[in-house]
Amino acid sequence: MTARKTVLILGSGFSKAVFPDAMPTVTQLAERLGQEKVLKTRPYDALAESPELLLSYLSLNQPWKEPAENLRDQALFVEVQRVLAEYIASCEGQAFQDPIPDWPGQLMEYLHKTRTPVITLNYDTVVERLVHRRKPGNPEGGWPQDHNLYDLPLSPIWARGGNALLGTEVETFQLIKLHGSINWFYSGVEGSPGEQIYYRTVNSDSPAQDCWGHDFGTERGIHRLCQDKVPLIIPPVAEKSRFYDNRTIRILWTAARKALAEAEELLCVGYSLPVTDLTMKLFLRAVARPKEVTLVNKVDPDDGDGQGILKRYQEAFPEVKIDDKTFVCDDSVQKMTDSLLS
To answer: Which residues of 141-176 are buried (b: 16+ CB within 10 A; e: fewer)?
Structure first.
């Protein structure tokens, strides 16, 4: 497996595999959104069961909406972004209080040593936090920080209060977060194409404890840094979206395209290629030419005999045999990790 050029594609099932009791499912995200009074009214109540579908609806100027409705939905979109980011951060903070098995850290070391690109559709910072937690003593060639993983012209949020140099450059794997991240901040969809995107450093066991930099860790300091910014959470919209006008976001997709074009093997980890993510399906079909595609998933009791996920991947890769046997099982991600390390 390691002899091939491999790319990992991570979905929410990866974070759930590491923290099965703490990281939220799509159903739990929907339940959290269901607590918001405005989302209990039409037409949002019919969309709230799918958070990403709801975000897609709110972010687009639908042709049947009146101008005032589009503006209200844009405002609601920002609020939903905040609610989701805060809820995911809260779950993540709880998750890292629990004992962590050894295999996630071993997987991080493997990715670092092999420089295996990772494309993720997750908003959480589980990968970054696992890398932070795994730092070995005196690592050969150094050990990466989050700015090494991102490999993007992002700026640390504390730089808004005074410029400072980043840490040492370390060669490591790319973490390509196509749907944004709860620790990335921007001005919203009305921002300019060249707008700077900022990130909050991941350097603790909880998003609530991460350092905002120097003297900005107080509530007042955080407000000063972020009062005009919102978390960068991108829904899987199929239509041309204002999100993709931002040049930094386009760099993400360019990096993913390069990784996929060179990949001989794709390991699709906890990612079911949902029908709502038409952009990703078209993207994979257009640019990826792997020799092997391996699904790494728990058996989904709601998917019958598993043919739903398999069919979606077959549509994305009509000329490739999909392996849905080797790692579609309980402890699937751990078993994949054991196979990689062996």
So the answer is: ebbbbbbbbbbbebbbbbbbeeeeeeeeeeebbbbb
In the chain, domain spans: 1-23+101-342, 26-95
Amino acid residing at 148: N
Order of all β-strands in the sheet with 180-186: 155-156, 198-199, 180-186, 230-233
Distance CA 172, CA 82 (A): 31
Number of Cβ within 10 Å of residue 43's Cβ equals 10
Q: With beta carbons less than 8 A apart as the criterion, state whether 297 and 327 touch.
A: yes
Number of Cβ within 10 Å of residue 248's Cβ equals 17
**Two tokens at 334?**
């751990």
Of 198, 201, 199, 197, the C-alpha closest to 209 is 201
Per-residue pLDDT tens for 2-44?
457 999 999 999 999 999 999 998 889 999 999 999 999 988 9
Q: How far apart are CA 160 and CA 139, in angstroms?
A: 31
Axis-axis angle for helices 51-59, 67-95 (nearest 10): 150
What confidence tens digit (pLDDT) does each residue in 172-221 have? Answer: 999 999 999 999 999 887 777 888 999 999 999 999 888 776 555 566 77
Cα 89 from Cα 23, distance rounded (Å): 9
Q: How many CB atoms lie within 10 A of CB 56?
A: 23
Task: Characterize the bridge pairing of strands 198-199 and 180-186.
Answer: antiparallel
Would you say 118 and 266 are in contact if contact means Cβ atoms under 8 Å apart? no
Report in angstroms the alpha-carbon separations of 188 from 74, 101, 184.
9, 37, 11
- Give residue 37's pLDDT: 92
CA–CA separation, 10 and 250 (whole Å) = 19
d(CA 110, CA 236): 29
Q: Tens digit of pLDDT for each residue in 253-294?
A: 999 999 999 999 999 999 999 887 888 999 999 999 999 999
Tokens of 292: 């092997």
pTM flag (> 0.85): yes
